[in-house]
């Protein structure tokens, strides 16, 4: 799994190794037609396009930006390689029927993803701070210290109930799903024996609980009578990291899958050695390996509909790209609607999209700084300490930045406000802790962000060149600066950062072409469902975080795979499952 946090790129340059190895190939000119044209090169779009190429289809992925990856793309400034989005991953190297959907796609493409592994992140909460470790037993120690024996009892009760449900939640491999009746062959019939066996092993009580997998996770918590405030707050935090909503809105199946990934024996978290860019690179390699193409700086102006069918796309340059079989949009539902001619859209379709609530947007802080900011040569004279000829009088030496900094930090300022309140939760990723190649020697790269909690209304209509905009960025980013200072410690200095970039919802909207800079649909489990992948317009399909199963890297990878599977025959689909051993 991974948190799905998306951030904009603030520059248009890339690391030299990617420029040399791959970028020249991505500059290909979009040719006139393909079997399938995919709009957008986010993880969902790349998974869809690469799998279709694997199936033998002629695929063209068109991307407006000059870098592929969508919310997962990376950018380089002064040798600092920044992730723009996802930073918390697990299951990337897993294989088999219960593997992460992205891992299953990479397996189908014959691509590997070298990763560093770790098992903890630092938590800064009102009660204190502690190193939270994943696994079945470690968290009990933290609960005992910060919440007490009742929280320990309730957490054990939760694990005892939830972990057996994972057999049902993970019984159908994501790669086996398709959007037509062929799913009865590729999923239902193929995996019925293992599904039946898992229900038998679960026992009657857990099997009954499995009926709640498509209900809000809070219903499972309520059935278990879990009331400890710390436990409920912690679960809301995990839910929000996973899907952008609290436990009363997230699907139980998603949370059960996450619990199985994080709280089983031997589990670990993973980080790609070259950052999230490595995920994008692997998917593009897979796409091109099987004859697929990707064209950057190819902005789609509109989807062309003739005789009530999607037949291709028109680029801003005026070029028409014909899609002989299908057009697949990896844009959000709101942005996809803008690409369609109004006369081709049924009112019921547009009404549903326009009335779907949106998650809020993001604030981002990208920093590059010296890992040993204050380890400089000192010269003492007349009661003063001189550093690089700058006198700092009557002050003791600064603290050093800790060597055991840790890759991830989560800061919660006030539980009472809720994890979905603005200016309350800050996530911090320092990937150079595990992958030193992401920063110049002796330096760190840091990405702090507020995950889908920044109201777009505060920013709407502002001129990005105005003093008002600059002042609002300074004001709204202050909570992130304070979180970074809290996480990194007294050795950190804002003034000594070599790179300082603040991203706003307008940046998010501009670079990711996300309507109102949104994180995605705010769909509440039990009250509504994510849309499927087909549309009322024949030959037009959608994938990504506006479709089932929702927000997050595993979810969007699964959505892309479902669309690809739906566009080929059942026998082709079955042969692929056989080939990768699931």
TrEMBL record:
Residues 44-565 form the Amine oxidase domain. GO terms for molecular function: oxidoreductase activity. It comes from the Eukaryota. One of its GO terms (biological process) is carotenoid metabolic process. It holds the Pfam family Amino_oxidase. InterPro entries: Amino_oxidase, CrtISO-like, FAD/NAD-bd_sf. This is Amine oxidase domain-containing protein. It comes from Vigna mungo (Black gram). The lineage of its organism: Eukaryota, Viridiplantae, Streptophyta, Embryophyta, Tracheophyta.
């Amino acid at each position: 799994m991974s948190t799905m946090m998306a951030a904009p790129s603030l520059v248009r340059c890339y690391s030299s190794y990617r420029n040399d190895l791959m970028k020249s190939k991505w500059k290909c000119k979009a040719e006139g037609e393909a079997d399938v044209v995919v709009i957008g090169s986010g993880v969902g779009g790349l998974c869809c396009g690469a799998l279709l190429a694997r199936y033998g289809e002629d695929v063209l992925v068109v991307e407006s930006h000059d870098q592929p990856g969508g919310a997962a793309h990376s950018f380089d400034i002064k040798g600092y390689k920044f992730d723009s989005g996802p930073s918390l991953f697990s299951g990337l190297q897993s294989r088999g029927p219960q593997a992460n959907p992205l891992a299953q796609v990479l397996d189908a493409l014959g691509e590997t993803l070298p990763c560093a592994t770790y098992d903890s992140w630092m938590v800064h909460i009102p009660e204190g701070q502690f190193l939270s470790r994943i696994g079945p037993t470690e968290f009990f120690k933290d609960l005992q210290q910060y919440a007490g024996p009742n929280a320990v009892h309730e957490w054990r009760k939760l694990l005892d109930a939830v972990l057996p449900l994972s057999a049902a939640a993970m019984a159908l491999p994501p790669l086996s799903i398709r959007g037509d009746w062929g799913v009865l062959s590729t999923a239902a019939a193929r995996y019925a024996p293992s599904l039946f066996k898992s229900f038998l092993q679960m026992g009657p009580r857990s099997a009954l609980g499995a009926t709640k997998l498509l209900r809000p996770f809070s219903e499972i918590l309520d059935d278990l009578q879990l009331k400890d405030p710390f436990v409920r707050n912690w679960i809301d935090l995990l839910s929000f990291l996973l899907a952008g909503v609290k436990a009363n809105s997230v699907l139980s199946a998603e949370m059960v899958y996450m619990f199985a990934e994080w709280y089983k024996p031997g589990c670990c978290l993973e980080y790609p050695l070259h950052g999230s860019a490595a995920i994008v690179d692997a998917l593009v390699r897979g796409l091109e390996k099987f004859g697929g193409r990707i064209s950057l700086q190819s902005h789609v102006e509109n989807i062309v509909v003739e005789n009530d069918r999607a037949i291709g796309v028109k680029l801003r340059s005026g070029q028409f790209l014909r899609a002989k079989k299908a057009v697949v949009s990896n844009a959000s539902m709101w942005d996809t609607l803008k690409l369609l001619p109004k006369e081709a859209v049924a009112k019921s379709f547009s009404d549903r999209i326009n009335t779907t609530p949106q998650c809020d947007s993001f604030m981002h802080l990208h920093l590059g700084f010296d890992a040993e900011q204050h380890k400089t040569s000192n010269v003492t004279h007349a009661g003063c300490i001189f550093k690089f000829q700058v006198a700092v009088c009557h002050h003791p030496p600064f603290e050093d930045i800790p060597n055991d900094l840790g890759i991830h930090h989560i800061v919660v300022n006030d539980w009472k406000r809720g994890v979905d309140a603005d200016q309350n939760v800050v996530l911090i990723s320092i990937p150079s802790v595990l992958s030193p190649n992401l920063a110049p020697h002796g330096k760190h790269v840091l990405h702090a962000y507020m995950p889908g909690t920044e109201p777009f209304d505060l920013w709407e209509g502002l001129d990005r060149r105005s003093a008002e905009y600059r002042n609002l960025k300074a004001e709204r980013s202050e909570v992130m600066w304070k979180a970074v200072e809290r996480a990194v410690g007294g050795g950190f200095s804002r003034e000594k950062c070599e790179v300082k970039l603040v991203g706003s919802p307008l940046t998010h909207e501009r670079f990711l072409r996300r309507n109102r800079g949104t994180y995605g649909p705010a769909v509440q489990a039990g009250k509504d469902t994510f849309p499927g992948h087909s549309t009322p317009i024949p030959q037009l399909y959608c994938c990504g975080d506006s479709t089932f199963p929702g927000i997050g890297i595993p979810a969007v990878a699964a959505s892309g795979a479902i669309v690809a599977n739906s566009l080929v025959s059942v026998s082709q689909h079955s042969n692929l499952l056989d080939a990768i051993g699931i």
